[in-house]
Amino acid sequence: MPERNRTKSLLTCIFAMFCSLAIPAAAQAESRLICVYDPAGRSGDYFSIMDQFAVEASTWGVEVKLKAYTDEETAAKDYQAGQCDGVVATGVRLQRFNNFPSSIEAMGAIPNYSTLKSMIDSLAKYESAAKRLRKGDHETVGFIPVGAVYLFVRNRNISTAGELAGKRIATMDYDKAAPVMVERLAGVMVPADLGSIGPKFNNGDVDACYMTAPAYRPFELFRGLEPNGGIIRFPLAQGTLQVLLRAPKFPDGFTTKARKTMVKYFDAAHKVIKSAEADIPSKYWITPDNKDIAEWDELFLSVRLKLRDEVKAYDGVMLGALRKLRCANEPSRAECAEQKE
Questions:
Q1: Mean pLDDT of the chain
Q2: Most exposed: 155, 297, 323, 338, by fewest CB within 10 Å?
Q3: In this model, does residue 278 exceed pLDDT 80?
Q4: Sign of torsion, CA 38 42 44 45?
Q5: E-strand spans in 154-196?
Q6: What is the pLDDT of residue 184?
Q7: Cα–Cα distance, 46 to 144 (Å, whole number)
Q8: What are the structural domain ranges in the chain?
Q9: In what helix (H) or strand (E) does residue 24 lie, and over which residues does it extend?
Q10: pLDDT class of 159 with cuts at 50, 70, 90
Q11: Which segment of 69-78, 103-112, 162-171, 192-201 scores lowest on mean pLDDT?
Q12: Are 304 and 94 in contact, with CB atoms under 8 Å apart?
């Protein structure tokens, strides 16, 4: 073989060897894990949304892998321990990292889904909001609505705030807002979490619990509603799953792209909610009158102010933004003139 051809062949082999070594190493270095809580695991609607996100995000210079969890607390703990580069969990579970995004779930702050969508769109659109979504290394890049939080009662004669005095209420023990709410109601707090709240309600250990419509069938809450229970059709709050990333683990610009991408999944999540609400038999729904609604609104405002000023669980900037949205949609609300938030 001529010297020229031997040299060319040798260079080709060396180049191929370096390519074969470099490509797997780079791919491995850019792999990131997001731990995803979904009560239904990998087959759940929320995991499916994150699966779509992962496919798109993997074109931004990092391979996104997902791990499913059916226990929310474990997912959050694994993220905190550094075993995950990101986590998907409820806002109330993630409030320890940053109470600005978690305050979107503030008691009585968002009365309907259109207001929730407006808030989520704004958080993705404005850079000033984006800065508040990051605290330290932790950055919230998405919100998946999981439904309005309703009060489930075993006795449908309990339909107003005043009638909950002395009643046992299953309360998320890691939620800073819940004890304040129960105290305002003069109720009895019974500690619970997502794994125990259904059994406590169904077995009669509590008189009331709060939950979203998509949890109605998985948690078999119809058992606790029979024979004389009901669901007060007035949102206590808006539940969300929030996508939290350890920002330094991802390439520059990744979190901005993620935030703009996640808003696209609102409608898919909203369909899940509306289907779940329609699936609940009409006999269970209790529609409060205007007087009762005014009573609930006044109670919610007092709770939010305490959680902002004393407990420091709610972020004042988020509460102020939500008040502006409520008043833009309904200027006649009493709070619009008072401007306490």
A1: 90
A2: 338
A3: yes
A4: positive
A5: 168-172, 188-192
A6: 92
A7: 8
A8: 31-338
A9: helix 3-29
A10: confident
A11: 192-201
A12: no
Is 242:151 a contact under the CB 8 Å cutoff?
no
**Overall average pLDDT of the 6-24 stretch:** 39
Residue 128 has what pLDDT? 87
Helix (H) or strand (E) holding 133: none
Check whether domain 31-338 has CATH 3.30.420.340, yes or no: no
Q: Which residues pair with 171 in a beta bridge?
A: 191
CB 145 within 8 A of CB 113: yes
Tokens of 44: 């759940």
Task: Say if residues 177 and 307 touch (Cβ distance below 8 Å).
Answer: yes
| pTM, two decimal places | 0.88
Residue spans of beta strands (DSSP E) within the chain: 31-37, 63-69, 86-90, 134-135, 138-153, 168-172, 188-192, 208-212, 230-246, 285-286
Q: 249 to each of 62, 245, 254, how far by Cα in Å?
A: 10, 8, 10
d(CA 148, CA 111): 9
Residue among 62, 64, 91, 63 at smallest CA distance from 76: 91
**Cβ(165)–Cβ(187) under 8 Å?**
yes
Specify the amino acid at residue 312: K
- The owner of tokens 């009060």 is 151
- pLDDT at position 3 over 80: no
Q: What digits encode the pLDDT tens for the residues 169-226?
A: 999 878 888 889 999 999 999 999 888 999 999 999 999 999 999 999 989 999 999 9
Q: Are 209 and 152 in contact (CB under 8 A)?
A: yes
Cα 78 vs. chain centroid, distance in angstroms?
17
Name the phi and psi angles at 164, rounded to 5: -90, 0
